[in-house]
DNA sequence: ATTCATATGTTAGTTTTTATAACATTGAAT
DNA sequence: ATTCAATGTTATAAAAACTAACATATGAAT
């Protein structure tokens, strides 16, 4: 279980994210609207945020504080790309895309764990 | 910001804990009743769990699977002690006590951060 | 100065989640 | 058969979060 993977795990409700980032719910949702973050959703449609999301939001706040507007922030985020390794390829993609994919995988893993992986100690999963 | 400190930070709602530990809400609350965990509370009285809590719960599940009853688990938890360093002393206490204290400090830190530590990047705080 | 767009605030109404508390069930030990 | 421990279930209330709409402030452009 990679560190990147762990950081992509959707865990926190919006209230916690508000506290940790000092952003309002309105702001957080607005940034999602602009696809700067793509929080996961619970079954009941509640946003669940990962540590990656927290990072992104903190950076957004930082950039806003520097007087950069949304368009600028989008650009910054789009520019910074990372590599994602599939079975057959190494794909270069934006932070946001990468986060979304990792989160997808993470949720898959959670669903797995929910049913089959009964005996496993998650502290191995979760050793921050 | 110590790792221990980070692990004591109350972040997750009970729904996430249920998924991660494969325990029911009933069980989790019952273990709290028996003070095997002491989750923090939000302003609105919702339980907020730390990674330490997750660990504890996973261990409880483990011990239950091994046929150990609550009394036994309490004993196990009480026996395993750790050191907590205050200004003037090194205090030896149970896991549960230690977790409660660290969580207390953590919430204090959160309150601080909420008001004063405006500019700080929490990813330094949170580098799992 | 007016207009316009952006970023955020605010409010209303609804749904989901969580809380407590009480009562029910199950299995093991006496 | 009774008792107790652990957990299930249900009812009810409160809190948190959702969407959507409208309001407002600020700065840029005309």
Automatic annotation (TrEMBL), chains A, B:
Domain HTH merR-type: 11-79
Source taxon at top rank: Bacteria
Organism name: Solibacillus merdavium
Family matches, as Gene3D superfamilies: 1.10.1660.10
This protein's record includes keyword Cell division: no
InterPro entries: DNA-bd_dom_put_sf, MerR-type_HTH_dom, MerR_fam
Protein name stated in the entry: MerR family transcriptional regulator
Entry-linked SMART domains: HTH_MERR
Keywords from the UniProt entry: DNA-binding, Repressor, Transcription, Transcription regulation
